[in-house]
Amino acid sequence: MKPAQHKKILASISLFMLAGILAAQPTRAQSIIKIDGSSTVFPITEAVSESFREKNSSVKFTIGIAGTGGGFKKFCKGETDISDASRPILKKEMAECAKNGIYYLELPVAFDALTVVINPKNKFLSKITVEELKKIWEPAAQGVITTWDQVNPAWPKAPIKLYGPGADSGTFDYFTEAINGKAKLSRTDFTTSEDDNVIVQAVSRDVNALGYLGFAYFSENSKKLKAAAIIAKDSKAAVLPSVKTVLDASYKPLARPLFIYVNAKSDERPEVRAFVDYYLNNADAIAKQVKYIPLSMKDYRHTMVNYKVKKTGTAFGGEAEVGVTIEELLKREPKN
Known about the structure:
- The longest helix is centred in the first third of the chain and has 22 residues, at 3-24.
- The chain contains twelve helices and 13 strands.
- 39% of the residues lie in helices and 17% in strands.
- It is globular.
- The chain is of the alpha/beta class.
- Helix 2 packs across helix 10 (270-289) and helix 10 runs antiparallel to helix 11 (297-308).
């Protein structure tokens, strides 16, 4: 064999061996953490991921805002590692995850004060009762309740323009459960968007508008929007959303916990485990940073314990519960 031919064969063998070695290495995709779901939880998750990457630059993230329901559709097919959720997983989603062999860890990360927003130029509305909200948003209102005076005779005969999240949103589910008595029970003749920024812009431009969204989006746009104080069924007090009123439980029934759901198989990957651990250890500070309400340190510690022992399943029965405490949830034996 000639030397030149020998070199060519050795080069071919070397390339073949290199290809085999590279094929055996973990793929770059394994360092990508895929997250989707709630637009309400998105600001917290985005801030945590940015902070995490400062010390873990090799880890990449894709973070979508398909809405809580849209996020669970992907999550229960195994398409994402983590699902942001502004309400607990529902029975049909639990069944879909079970069918596909997806086990998950349900981790509360913060509180939200779901906020009813109006245009700052609205001079007649500063507070609203739960009964009035129901009169506006219940299915029977569709095509019937179209002006403000139909809700309250003291209000003007002007058209109500309604804006809110779409049917895939956990905010929609929680609001309809809290106000109308059942998740997804709502009139449908209103303008919808899964992006809360779209609702912000719409309400800020229309003096007759009313909408609802997460507290962080209101806080960031408090010069463009006005929050309506809520009068609960068992109260005469009109309460505005704030950190204080959520923590002292006076803002009801629209205070709610926010979650991340972690695919148990994904959690076996060191980068996912490191990220979730970082998330729980820093959620208190980062929730405040992005204008959400943190859990108590006791609840964060309990959440971390549940995570460390890998408690899979949900503390809920496949339905949103209005008014339940985080402490109570964390003590429950989860269901798959």
